[in-house]
């Protein structure tokens, strides 16, 4: 059974935090297998928590996507600083917020996709803390999608943002500890400690209780489709926010779900046509046509490729209605959201031209393979 970094602290296996004044970066999923929160575990382990920090969605996980969160106070009186406000600068802790801290402890559950912003919050925290001579301590957690299969080419200069600050594949097959180790290596930062997991097998499935790390990541099934499902954010389609199965369910009032399910065959999944009415977000209170993606064989299901193919099919079938998102996205307003998500313009351009997206997906596999070789230096667990 996997024991997370937090679990190891709870069991008394890690004593380096005892007597230290710490800042804690955490969210609702920062819990042990018995659901004890990191704040309680660290206090019991002898650390003094002098400040809390909440990533996107907030320390308590209440906020929806791209909604700024204000500062607050914890029941113990310590400040809760937001790391998601109204500007890119708000994503990093300030020197004033880090004052008096000996170590910045980060315990965030990632979901294995480049777009999921918690790993980039950790990377920005590392850089801010190291600039002040403060050590960052990562309590590592499993990647719910495993540590082997990767998808979607790394992005590059001009397409980096808070949904991908460093160039990793969309489905990166790394833990948060490994990604922050990569960032530390690339930035020449030594002030990093990773409390590694005990017993994590990168080839095994998820073994721990699932606690939703953000409001629209309610289940493990959501995480399985998310490397593809998040692409919907770059379009005028509903990604299912405002339903109980976001990212698995998607569509729009103009989408014919039956035609989509008939015309697109996805290995390892069944597309079930349906109608739905989001309670909020895109197309709120409107009846949308679309599909729910039911993963039937996780080993064969490639979420990124699956959703790229479905977007291409919808764009072909609904040329007058389908559109790419043009609004500001994660503090960037000069690059289309879909390009930030895909790491470049190639997918969008191919779909706009009505070209076969398989050629793009094949080229991306070569880039993923190259990254697979590069990442060996930063892996903390056998592959």
UniProtKB/TrEMBL annotation:
Residues 225-381 form the Peptidoglycan beta-N-acetylmuramidase NamZ C-terminal domain. PANTHER family: HYPOTHETICAL 460 KDA PROTEIN IN FEUA-SIGW INTERGENIC REGION [PRECURSOR], PEPTIDOGLYCAN BETA-N-ACETYLMURAMIDASE NAMZ. Pfam families: NamZ_C, NamZ_N. It comes from the Bacteria. It comes from Sandaracinus amylolyticus. This is DUF1343 domain-containing protein. InterPro entries: NamZ, NamZ_C, NamZ_N. Gene3D superfamilies: 3.90.1150.140, Uncharacterised protein PF07075, DUF1343. GO terms for molecular function: peptidoglycan beta-N-acetylmuramidase activity. The lineage of its organism: Bacteria, Pseudomonadati, Myxococcota, Polyangia, Polyangiales. Residues 22-220 form the Peptidoglycan beta-N-acetylmuramidase NamZ N-terminal domain.
């Amino acid at each position: 059974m996997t024991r997370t970094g937090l679990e190891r602290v709870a069991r008394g296996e890690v004593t380096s935090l005892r007597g230290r004044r710490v800042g804690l970066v955490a969210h609702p999923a920062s819990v042990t297998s018995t659901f004890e929160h990191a704040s309680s575990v660290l206090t019991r382990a002898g650390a003094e928590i002098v400040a809390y920090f909440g990533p996107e969605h907030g320390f308590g996980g209440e906020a929806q996507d791209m909604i700024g969160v204000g500062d607050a106070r914890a029941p113990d009186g310590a400040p809760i600083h937001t790391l998601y406000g109204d500007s890119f600068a708000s994503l990093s802790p300030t020197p004033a917020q880090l004052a008096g801290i000996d170590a910045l402890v980060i315990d965030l559950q990632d979901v294995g996709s480049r777009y999921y912003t918690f790993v980039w919050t950790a990377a920005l925290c590392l850089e801010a803390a190291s600039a002040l001579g403060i050590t960052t301590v990562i309590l590592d957690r499993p990647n719910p999608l495993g540590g082997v299969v990767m998808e979607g080419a790394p992005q590059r200069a001009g397409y980096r943002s808070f949904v991908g600050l460093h160039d990793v594949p969309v489905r990166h097959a790394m833990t948060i500890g490994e990604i922050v180790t990569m960032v530390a290596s690339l930035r020449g930062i030594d002030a990093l400690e990773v409390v590694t997991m005990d017993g994590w097998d990168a080839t095994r499935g998820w073994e721990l209780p699932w606690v939703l790390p953000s409001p629209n990541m309610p289940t493990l099934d959501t995480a399985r489709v998310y490397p593809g499902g998040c692409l919907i954010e770059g379009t005028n389609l509903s990604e299912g926010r405002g339903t109980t199965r976001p990212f698995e369910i998607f569509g729009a009032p103009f989408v014919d779900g039956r035609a989509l399910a008939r015309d697109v065959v996805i290995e390892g999944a069944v597309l079930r046509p349906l109608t739905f009415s989001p309670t909020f977000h895109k197309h709120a209170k409107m009846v949308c046509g679309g599909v729910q993606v039911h993963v039937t064989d996780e080993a064969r299901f490639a979420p990124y490729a699956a959703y790229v193919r479905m977007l291409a099919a919808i764009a072909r079938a609904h040329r007058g209605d389908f559109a790419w998102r043009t609004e500001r996205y994660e503090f960037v307003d000069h690059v289309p959201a879909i390009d930030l998500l895909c790491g470049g313009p190639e997918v969008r351009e191919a779909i706009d031209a009505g070209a076969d997206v398989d050629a793009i997906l094949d080229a991306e596999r070569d880039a993923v393979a190259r990254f697979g070789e590069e990442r060996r230096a930063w892996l903390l667990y056998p592959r």
